[in-house]
Amino acid sequence: MTTSKFDIADYLDNKEMIAEYLNTVLEDGDNADVINAIGHIAKAIGMTKIAEETGLSRPSLYKALSDGAKPQFETIMKVLRAIGGQVNIKPI
User: Fold this and answer.
1) Cβ distance 38 to 80 under 8 Å?
2) What does the alpha-carbon distance between residue 52 and residue 91 come to, in Å, rounded to a whole number?
3) How far apart are CA 30 and CA 33, in angstroms?
4) Nearest Cα to 69, choosing from 30, 44, 35?
5) Is the pTM of this model over 0.85?
6) Domain assignment present for 5
7) Is 80 within 8 Å of 87 (Cβ atoms)?
8) Measured between alpha carbons, how far is 50 from 57 in angstroms, rounded to an integer?
9) How far apart are CA 22 and CA 44, in angstroms?
10) Can you say whether the dihedral through the CA atoms of 57, 59, 64, 66 is positive or negative?
């Protein structure tokens, strides 16, 4: 039996799946989880497209969205806009 590596980006193929995934991570994850999730979404959409829309280089995006990265808030907001997302605050 052969196995293949699971890559969540393979399943993020529409806006609804992307939103559900990111909202789940925002609710349950920590900062690193959120950054990784945004990276998975950017990969699913295409780093070249995200780079063009954000004005950042592909290497910069990969670095900013990698494990252990601490990207600037501005970078996160640019990427969120490029992936078609926005931040909403709900009282808890």
Assistant:
1) yes
2) 34
3) 5
4) 35
5) yes
6) no
7) yes
8) 9
9) 13
10) positive
- Asked whether residue 76 is assigned to any structural domain, the reply reads yes
Range of the domain at 75: 51-85
Residue 73 lies in a domain: yes
pLDDT over 90 (residue 65):
yes
pLDDT single digits (tens) 12-42: 999 899 999 999 999 999 999 999 999 999 9
* Nearest of 56, 50, 55, 52 to residue 38 by alpha carbon: 50
Residue type, 49: K
Question: Would residue 4 count as lying in a domain?
Answer: no
Tokens at 44, concatenated: 């699913």
Distance CA 4, CA 59 (A): 26
Domain count along the chain: 1
